[in-house]
Inverse folding.
C-alpha cells in the first residue's frame, strides 16, 4: 500500500477514456476506550488506510456536454490488472451519469495543513476524559455506556489538474448513554466532539447530560394543551436552525431552483427582534479544504438580515460561474441583545432534546418533534416530553431573539440560546 497513490495515478493516466480523476487518501489512527457501568472494559487501536478513486468522463449526447463520474474504494494492495478493471467499471458507470459539464478544482503549490498535536499518550487522554465525565455521576444518575475515540486523520487529495493538498486533524469523540434510576430507568444518547482535551468543558458537558437524563426521569406529557408559547433553543438546536435557514442559498439550491431569494433580498423583512449575521468559515486552521480539494473561502451569507452571498462546492460553482467556498462550513452567527435571564422571565418551552428543526420557507413552516423540554408557565418549571412544535418561519424571523451570551461547539460559534416567538405546542 505504500506506493498505492502513484500506482493508481499511473493506471489512470494510461487510460485515454479517463477525462479526469481525483484520489482521496485517508489514514486514520484511532485509540479507543469502551466503558460499561463506568468501568473500563476494552481498549484497542485501529490503524487504517483507504483510497477513494473518482473517475470522470466527459461525453456528449444530442449536442449537450456532460461530465459523468463514478468512484471505487481501495483498502488493500491491488495489481495493475485489478486497478485497470476497477477503472473500466467506473468509466462504464460514469457514462450513465449526465451531470452538465464542469471542470475539476485547479491545482497550485503543494500544501500541507496540520492541527496541533495533543502531545500526550492517547490512552492517558482517554482516562482523563472518562474521569472528567464520571466525576459528575451520582447514585441516581450515571453513565451506563461510555465510549471514547481519539483519532488522528491524515487526508491527502490529488487530482488530474494539479491539486495536491494534505491535512492532519486530531479529534476526541465521545458516545455516552447517561442513565437515571428513579421510579423507572431512563436513558439518553449523547455525542460530543472536542478538538483538544478540555477537561473543564467535558465536566460541564457531563453535568448537563446527567441533569438532562434526570429531567427525563420526571418528564411527562403535558396534562393540558399549552397552546402558543415562546420556544428556546440551546446551541445544538440553534446550529441546526441556522444551517436550515441558509440551506436553500447554497449553489446547489440556486441551480436546482429551491432558493427563494436573490442577493440583497431580506431574510428578515421588517425585523422587530435581533437581526441576523451568518458567516461560514473553515472549521479550523487545519481543516482548510473539502473533498474536491477546494480551499475554504470565508463567506458572509447573511449580513444585517439580508442575503449577502451564495455558497457551495466546485461543481455547482462552475454552473453559476462562482468560486467554490470549499470547506467554509463552520457557522459564525452574531450574538443578540437579550440576556438568557430576560428570555426566561416569561413563559417558555426550552428544548433539551429533539429530532431536529425542519424549515420549509415555501409553506412558511418551522417545527419538529420534541423528546424532552423544560416548560415554564410563568410560575413553575417542569419537564415535559412527547410533543411537537410548529410555527411560522416568517414570524419567527421577524421577532427573533438571540442571546448576548455566546457558545462554541464544533462547527458553531454564536448565541448560546435562540428564542422563537409564538410557537404552537402540540
Amino acid at each position: 500500500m505504500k506506493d498505492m497513490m502513484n500506482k493508481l495515478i499511473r493506471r489512470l493516466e494510461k487510460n485515454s477514456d479517463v477525462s479526469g480523476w481525483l484520489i482521496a487518501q485517508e489514514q486514520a489512527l484511532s485509540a479507543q476506550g469502551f466503558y460499561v457501568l463506568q468501568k473500563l472494559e476494552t481498549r484497542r487501536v485501529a490503524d487504517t488506510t483507504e483510497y477513494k478513486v473518482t473517475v470522470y468522463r466527459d461525453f456528449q449526447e444530442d449536442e449537450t456536454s456532460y461530465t459523468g463520474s463514478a468512484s471505487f474504494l481501495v483498502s488493500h494492495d491491488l495489481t495493475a490488472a485489478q486497478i485497470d478493471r476497477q477503472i473500466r467499471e467506473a468509466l462504464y458507470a460514469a457514462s450513465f451519469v449526465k451531470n452538465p459539464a464542469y471542470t475539476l478544482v485547479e491545482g497550485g503549490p503543494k500544501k500541507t495543513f496540520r492541527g496541533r498535536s495533543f502531545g500526550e499518550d492517547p490512552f492517558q487522554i482517554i482516562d482523563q476524559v472518562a474521569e472528567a465525565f464520571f466525576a459528575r455521576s451520582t447514585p441516581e444518575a450515571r453513565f451506563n455506556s461510555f465510549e471514547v475515540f481519539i483519532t488522528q486523520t491524515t487526508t491527502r487529495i490529488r487530482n488530474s489538474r494539479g491539486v495536491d493538498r494534505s491535512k492532519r486533524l486530531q479529534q476526541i469523540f465521545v458516545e455516552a448513554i447517561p442513565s437515571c434510576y428513579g421510579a423507572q430507568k431512563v436513558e439518553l444518547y449523547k455525542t460530543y466532539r472536542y478538538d483538544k482535551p478540555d477537561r473543564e468543558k467535558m465536566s460541564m458537558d457531563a453535568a448537563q447530560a446527567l441533569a438532562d437524563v434526570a429531567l427525563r426521569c420526571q418528564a411527562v406529557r403535558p396534562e393540558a394543551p399549552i397552546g402558543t408559547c415562546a420556544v428556546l433553543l440551546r446551541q445544538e438546536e440553534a446550529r441546526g436552525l441556522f444551517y436550515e435557514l441558509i440551506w436553500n442559498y447554497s449553489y446547489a439550491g440556486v441551480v436546482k431552483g429551491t432558493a427563494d431569494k436573490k442577493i440583497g433580498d431580506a431574510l428578515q423583512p421588517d425585523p422587530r427582534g435581533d437581526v441576523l449575521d451568518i458567516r461560514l468559515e473553515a472549521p479550523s486552521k487545519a481543516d482548510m479544504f473539502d473533498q474536491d480539494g477546494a480551499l475554504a473561502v470565508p463567506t458572509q451569507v447573511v449580513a444585517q438580515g439580508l442575503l449577502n452571498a451564495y455558497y457551495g462546492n466546485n461543481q455547482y460553482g462552475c454552473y453559476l460561474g462562482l468560486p467554490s467556498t470549499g470547506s467554509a462550513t463552520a457557522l459564525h452567527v452574531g450574538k443578540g441583545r437579550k440576556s438568557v435571564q430576560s428570555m426566561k422571565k416569561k413563559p417558555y418551552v426550552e428544548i433539551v432534546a429533539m429530532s431536529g428543526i425542519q424549515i420549509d420557507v415555501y409553506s412558511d413552516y418551522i417545527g419538529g418533534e420534541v423528546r424532552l423540554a423544560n416548560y415554564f408557565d410563568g410560575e413553575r418549571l417542569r419537564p415535559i416530553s412527547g410533543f411537537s412544535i410548529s410555527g411560522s418561519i416568517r414570524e419567527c424571523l421577524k421577532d427573533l431573539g438571540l442571546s448576548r451570551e455566546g457558545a462554541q461547539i464544533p462547527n458553531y460559534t454564536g448565541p448560546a440560546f435562540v428564542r422563537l416567538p409564538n410557537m404552537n405546542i402540540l
In short: The mean pLDDT is 95. The chain has two domains: 4-217, 227-425.
